[in-house]
Task: structure prediction
Amino acid sequence: MRRLAITLLFALTVVSLPQSAASGEKSTGLHTSVNKHRGTAVKQDQIEKLRKFDQLIRYFANFSYIVPRHKVNADFLRALILAESGANPRAVSPRDALGLAQIIYPTGKKAASDLANSATTFRYVSRETLRNLQREDLFDPAVNILLASYLIARYNHRFDGRLELVLSAWNAGENTDSLNYGRHAPYRETENLIGRVNAYYIYLLQNRIFP
Result:
């Protein structure tokens, strides 16, 4: 089985696109954000928080959601969870993103419906829950990690494993205009998320904390 490849951003030369502030805070440059977070370490308390959910992360990262024989990278999921919620399953953002991976309810509900209608069955999450997903369900670590795994697999396949595009789809929506031109979403929030996830992902891969 192959792991879906997500390309790390060690160094970038990026031209930011002009964008109305109505769509989010204006870009300060992806290169700046990646450099800002470069070398960030995963701290011991963060590792301990992640360990609580490691069985679920390993389990749900082990499915081929979109492409046969291709799986989600578990370290990428761990990096995303750290960057989004600090591994807090009850986290709620100002934009009402919920749980470990900070999933917006409408996005989660559509993903849950896709999975409920698939031929795959899962431990820890019932088909009934997926068919009738409620907002509160996103605070369940199993539900949240399953939906995050599916969505990341979908974005990874669509955007050829380019980390900045995968996370732009995750944070700003997969139909964001810039993605149609192979460019990241030029919002400060998105760029900061890309920088944080990239740094955590590099650290986790290099240090093999979760072999």
Remarks:
- The domain at 36-207 is CATH 1.10.530.10 (Lysozyme).
- DSSP finds nine helices and four strands in the chain.
- The beta strands are 2-3, 70-71, 97-98, 103-104.
- The chain has one domain: 36-207.
